[in-house]
Write a structure and sequence with these properties.
By secondary structure, the chain is α/β, with parallel strands linked by helices. The chain has two domains: 2-168 and 354-369, NAD(P)-binding Rossmann-like Domain (Rossmann fold); 185-348, Dihydrodipicolinate Reductase, domain 2 (2-Layer Sandwich). It has 15 helices and 13 strands. A seven-stranded mixed β-sheet has the order 4-3-2-1-5-6-7, with helices on both faces. Strands 9-11-10-8-12-13 form a six-stranded mixed β-sheet. Helix 1 (13-24) runs antiparallel to helix 3 (58-69) and helix 1 (13-24) packs across helix 15. The structure holds NADP nicotinamide-adenine-dinucleotide phosphate. NADP nicotinamide-adenine-dinucleotide phosphate is lined by residues 9-15, 43-45, 73, 86, 103-106, 108, 126-128, 163, 167, 351-353, 356.
Length: 373
């Protein structure tokens, strides 16, 4: 049996779901993979719990999950304490074969992740931000590993980030397989936001924009400030990760983003923004009608093609996979030399803490079994 040390950064919705899955599937991992996961350290934004040697026992782990779900801070947990340096935690808790898992939503983890790679540990990210800062950081995070010949490997060796695009859907794995096979990817087109999928479906069914956004807000489908979804930046981060996965050198500032509201509305409070939404209805209605008149539909899509990443309302053929999509699913089309004229399509639930945690767990198992006899 191999004992795999785990250090988990972030105990929000995804981090907690991951801990639950690790505990629930101990039998599977032991029987099928010969693995025992040992959680040596868990951190939130200003605290941590460290248990060297045997790692945290399952009773404590599940107690920590409840404690965090109830709004607790690890700094105040009985066995916890304050921390303000994730790299120091990794230094104390890390050991050969460790997997550091980033389930935070901040780029502040970058130094700790780089430190972990320097120590030859493995890393798994659900967090997009470290992969969408400077290109050099992306390269160091994703290409650490097989550098014995001095050349940065094209493919990741010790890092996985499957859940950063489309949560549990195998989008990054598919991209990496296409790249590895030499099949030129001519275009990637996709929808990467369940919230925006919901909004576009409502528009297509004739609902006014203000009504569908208000509904999504009330149902909790949007962020507390709906502009965080409607602005498109989260989609832009995902498109950038795909573009960089193709080997393109570009930054977030190079991604061309058109949001679903004008920049002048950035200065409003959330209630003011919600009240002003009807001023956008007529324009979006017109765009939907113009699309329909030419046999097309409007989707909030990301298109990665010919060196450009373009995010925003996009006209797509009504009969295409993207055009047929309704509801909150994510869908990604890969148009390549071999997948033409019909693209390779991945579709399914692209969000949710359990599906995301399951994707993170698959990444951990893959890294833990890598090179294992
Ligand atoms: N939810 C989804 O459906 C989904 C899907 C795909 C990918 N993701 C990604 O997965 C990540 C986690 O999502 P989530 O929904 O679990 O987010 P979340 O509920 O906001 O949890 C974030 C966690 O990160 C911790 N954190 C914040 N700053 C930190 C710091 N400087 N050092 C250490 N920990 C820090 C927070 O600490 P406190 O507890 O102290 O606040 C919290 O525990 C995000 O990057 C998200 O984009 C989420």
């Amino acid at each position: 049996m191999s004992v795999v040390p785990i250090i988990l950064l972030g105990l929000g919705g995804v981090g907690r779901a991951l801990v639950r899955l690790l505990v629930e599937h101990r039998g599977l991992h032991a029987a099928e993979y010969g693995l025992t996961f040992s959680l040596l350290a868990l951190c939130d934004r200003d605290g941590g719990v460290i248990a060297l040697y045997e790692g945290l026992d399952d009773v404590t782990l599940l107690d920590l999950v409840s404690f965090k779900a109830g709004g607790g801070r690890l700094a105040e947990y009985s066995a916890g304490g304050p921390q303000n340096d994730l790299a120091a935690v990794i230094d104390i808790a890390g050991r050969t074969g460790a997997v550091v898992v980033d389930c935070t939503a901040t780029e502040a983890t970058v130094p700790a992740l780089l430190y972990a790679l320097d120590k030859r540990y493995k890393i798994v990210l659900a967090n997009k931000k470290p992969l969408t800062v400077e290109q050099e950081v992306y390269d160091r995070l994703t290409r650490a590993g097989r550098t014995e010949d001095g050349r940065p490997p094209r493919q990741l060796a010790r890092t996985r980030w499957e859940t950063t695009c489309g949560a549990g859907l195998p989008v990054i794995a598919t991209l990496n397989r296409l790249v590895a096979s030499g099949d030129p990817v001519q275009r990637i087109a996709g929808t990467f936001s369940g919230t925006l999928g919901y909004v576009m479906t409502g528009l297509q069914q004739g609902q006014p924009f203000s009504e569908v956004v208000t509904q999504a807000h009330e149902l909790g489908y949007t962020e507390p400030d709906p502009r965080d979804d409607l602005g498109g930046v989260d989609v832009a981060r995902k498109a950038l990760i795909l573009a960089r996965g193709l080997g393109w050198q570009m930054d977030l500032a190079d991604v061309e983003v058109t949001g679903l509201y004008p920049a002048e509305m950035d200065g409003l409070s959330v209630p003011e923004f919600m009240a002003a939404l009807p001023t956008l209805d007529a324009d979006l209605r017109r765009q939907v009608e113009t699309a329909a008149a030419t046999g097309k539909v409007l989707r909030y899509a990301a298109t990665v093609e010919k060196g450009r990443c373009v995010i925003g309302p996009t006209l797509v053929d009504a009969a295409s996979p993207l055009g047929r999509l309704t509801g909150t699913d994510n869908l990604v089309e890969f148009h390549t030399r071999w997948y033409a004229p019909t693209p390779l399509v991945i579709q399914g639930r692209g969000a949710g803490v359990d599906a995301t945690a399951a994707g993170v767990l698959s990444d951990i198992v893959e890294l833990a079994t890598m090179g294992k006899e």
